[in-house]
User: What shape does this take?
Amino acid sequence: MSKITIPSQLDTTILAETFKLLGDPTRLRILFFCLEHPRSVGDIAASLDLSQSLVSHHLRLLRGARLVRGNRQAKQIFYELADKHVSDMLVDMAHHVCEDGDD
Amino acid sequence: MSKITIPSQLDTTILAETFKLLGDPTRLRILFFCLEHPRSVGDIAASLDLSQSLVSHHLRLLRGARLVRGNRQAKQIFYELADKHVSDMLVDMAHHVCEDGDD
DNA sequence: TAAACACATGAACAAATATTGATATGTTTA
DNA sequence: TAAACATATCAATATTTGTTCATGTGTTTA
Assistant: This one.
């Protein structure tokens, strides 16, 4: 059971878009930083030593792919992962990168 | 339990490298095509309508990241996913891309 | 309202990357 | 060995993409 389904070329492209977003160290750092609890843009920039502009640009891409969502709290906007789905996947992959080298 | 572990900056970079490889539609198509059983380079190129050169290039990258492995069978070389680890992740992600739109 | 603060956006540039075409390497068959 | 076949590699090109700097938008406080 659990038959293997080969995605259509369109689905493949969509899937690739998501992977592509995850394929950048800066974006991954942002995502992991927001994993535990929501973080403001300024906090992200300061903690990760990135320019505010750069963080905003990346957050826009991540927002566009529904990987994160932000809600305003007074002047600041706090970003968190979009849903458990995404965070589970990240944690899962993080584990994978640690346990390397079978074979 | 299952405490969230934030990867080091180095680990993040390594993880990103893997995601980056998965973040190309052509490579994803190659991977899914080899999911069920090993496929020769020529078969991949013909079936996916890609030049032989392009397929070889991509396979080299995938090999370098230990995402696929190939074994020679006479003139041809048959490629398959490196381990269950990789294929499980791919199938998993393929499922994710289908079930969209919570919220 | 004006100034200050937090974040978003646009243009521009440099670096990375996918793709192509030609050629090389290695394996088999005549 | 030579020719044919399958795959790999090299060099070059065109596109994509991450980053920066300057500026714009929206919210709060004086």
